Amino acid sequence: MHALSVTVDAAREDETATALWDHGTCGIEVRPDAAGRVELLAYFEHEPDKARLESALPDAAITGVPVPEVDWVARFREGFRPFRVGRFLISPCWEATARSPELLVVDPGRAFGTGTHETTRLCLEALEELATRRPLGRTLDLGSGTGLLAVAAERLGAESTVASDIDPEATAASRLHARLNSARLQVVRADGGTAFRPGSFDLVLANLMVLLLIDRVAEIRALVAPGGALVLSGLLLDDVPPVRQAYAACGAPRELRFGEWAALVFDAPLAFATPLPGAPR
């Protein structure tokens, strides 16, 4: 990684940034300078052609600078503040104090699912709505990441909760969040739903990439017990029609939206749990 400091009049900030992007920068940090000038700290994957940039920006002061060492996890933590999603208050572990059923404690920077992304928020909304209408029963958080959704399901009265992921860092994060929240989670390292008997769960949460949701439709659908519910998230709005079609056998879902993201909630009783070929019963 290489970095250049480019100082120009503030009025030329946009023009300068455009020139830097044209010359291959992979990121720009803007810092106010004295006397109406700004410094653009531009990062390059490969050593930039400083002479070409000086030709393109003749009035700019351009110097090579060391690339600063940044602890991005620490930087993220600095800006992470408690926030609400429905009934839940999501709080970083260093600010959480008194425990309550509405509090979800997270350690930001460990796997996916700190509650800040729209797809996680949609799943939390779906969980809360489902819990007002039916017992959550035996719940599986498939591709659990931090395990935050599994913790939320336990808070909402799930009979038992499993957090499953193939990534060892994710399963470690799920165990950490179980401890931080004093939650009784079963944490399993597994590839999708292959580790579980068909029909084992009253609720399956699958906040996954759309390609996985479609490629593994039979496997995911088979996990749901008759009369159970299924929540699919991780969908951009354009992904909704093909996923609806792939899961058409599960009935007509409710669609939840947050910005450009969506989740599908199949909470009508399912008449079947389709076993995989050769799977144990």
What would you say this structure looks like, in words?
- Helix content is 28%, strand content 30%.
- The protein is built from nine helices and 14 strands.
- A seven-stranded mixed beta sheet has the order 10-9-8-11-12-14-13. A four-stranded antiparallel beta sheet has the order 2-3-1-4, covered by helices on one side. A three-stranded mixed beta sheet has the order 5-6-7.
- A hairpin with a 4-residue loop joins β2 (27-32) and β3 (37-44).
- The longest helix has 14 residues, at 118-131.
- The protein is elongated.
For the record, give the distance between the C-alpha atoms at the N and C termini, rounded to a whole number. Answer: 54 Å
Q: How many β-strands, per DSSP?
A: 14
Structural class: alpha/beta
Q: Look up the CATH topology of the largest domain.
A: Rossmann fold
Order of helices and strands: EHEEHEHEEEHEHEHEEHHEHEE
The CATH H-level superfamily of the largest domain is Vaccinia Virus protein VP39
Count of helical regions: 9
- CATH classification class of the largest domain: Alpha Beta
Give the count of structural domains. 2
Radius of gyration: 24 Å
Spans of at least 5 consecutive residues with low confidence: 272-281
Share of helix, binned: 25-40%
Shape estimate? elongated
In the CATH classification, which architecture of the largest domain applies?
A: 3-Layer(aba) Sandwich
